[in-house]
Amino acid sequence: MSTADPQTATVRTRFAPSPTGFLHIGGFRTIIFSWLLARRHGGQFALRVEDTDQQRTVPGVVEDFLEGFRWMGIDLDEGPVIGGPFGPYYQSQRRDLYAAYAHQLVASGHAYRCFCSKERLEEMYADQQARHLPTTGYDRRCRRLSPSEIDANLAAGLSYVVRIAIPTDGDTIVPDALRGDVVFHHRALEDLVLLKSDGYPTYHLASVIDDHLMRFTHILRGDEWLSTAPIHKLIYDALQWEWPITAHVPSVMGSDGRKLSKRRGAQSILYYRDQGFLPHAIINYLALLGWSYDDKTEILSVDQLQQAFSLERVQRSGAVFDEERMKWFNGVYIRQMAIDELLDHVLPFMERPAADGGLPDEVARPLNRAFVRRVVQLDQERIKLLTDVVPLTDFFFVNTLTYPVEWLIGKGLDAAGARSGMERALGSLESNLTWEAAVLEETMRQLATDMGVRPGPLFMGLRVAVTGRKETPPLFATMEILGREETLKRVRSGLELLAAL
Ligand code: GLU
Q1: Which CATH number fits domain 405-499: 3.40.630.10, 1.10.10.350, 1.10.240.10, 3.30.460.10?
Q2: What distance in angstroms lies between residue 212's CA and the mean position of ligand 1's atoms?
Q3: What is the pLDDT of residues 111-130, one digit of tens each?
Q4: pTM value?
Q5: I need a surface site. Which of 136, 200, 438, 472 has the fewest CB within 10 A?
Q6: Which residues contact 140 (CB under 8 A, 6 or more apart)?
Q7: Domain extents for the chain?
Q8: Using a 6 Å cutoff on CB, does residue 16 contact ligand 1?
């Protein structure tokens, strides 16, 4: 949280979602950039909900964003629920404000009332299409209405929208922090609607008014919005407001090279929580999706990112989201974690019902923390997602293992050889050994030597008997943790299977 005065802060950024659905990962990346920029300069970061399209508003999305922010540790200075000096932070609660500005723009000639009915507009578009006309949309009929025609329409109670009056010639130059000056020819722009007939503003009007009134100094948004920036700039100019520093950050593509969008790849951030990602790993990975620290450093803590982030090092080209890479980052963070912290993270995953990805239901909950601690420690190197812990460790917890009996026969052995190896191994393990990995290993190696066999195939049979797996953490450490009784029980079961062959 920032302690700077919001009235005079030099950096104020915002995330301004339309709650019409979840975000894709590119949206989260833009959030991370905006938040880091505010934190870098001791400024403020706010959430503003652009719910001006009531029909398309999806219930629960804002709550999901807030929960996602809380989980990620992205702290807000202002927004819904917590409020702030420039609230309300729901645009639906600021309606009158936008209408007043729309009428101010009408009065100054920068906008006009359009009385065209839906039917007339449909006809117009159909006609433009039929005649293959190069179209910039609305044909501006109402822009040519005389004052008396307008008065007559108003007196007749006709409903209207307010449209921006794009200058008929010339250009608008949009200064962009990443691209420099971007030139838009007016003849290519449409007289877009600013205020709808129901009195609700469109995104263009509401976003500009709020960005100004809420004193945001830096506007970061995805480059899919660049085409609307000249409309925003014209409104700023008409109201004689200062254009904020604006950066249209490059898109994020899916691994197929196609742009992510609300329809492709949109997901609650909480999805990644449920997949077993750690917030800091996500933040680190996403910060580097289009920004770099020094072209080589990959692992940067949130503190480091907050100290280093700058628009200057945001790249101009698009970035590709690679979930496997994000998992790699996650694995790095998991390996760095103190074991007890890791345990706090993985225990809830392990204790979920089996149907939700937890350990088999036969395993009694709550788990024994001290035992799980030893198990997880043994596997810490291998965990990439917190959820990996379940398939990696479940054999420690279950009562019965199931595996194909042939797995018990190590390479180069036949059934009889595997059986006699297993028998002698069981005999040695049953003798009065100190139950420690090093002693167990030494004993089993000695056995291989005595039998004149290679240790590898002998150990493989034991590994499968003890874990039901061919790939496991170190075998003897596993046996140590499982304990004497459980290990012997499992080796005996393996031996019974071999004997029945
Ligand atoms: N409401 C827009 C969205 O949903 C905000 C774009 C902007 O940041 O101006 O992405």
Answers
A1: 1.10.10.350
A2: 15
A3: 999 999 999 999 999 988 88
A4: 0.92
A5: 438
A6: 191
A7: 270-396, 405-499
A8: yes
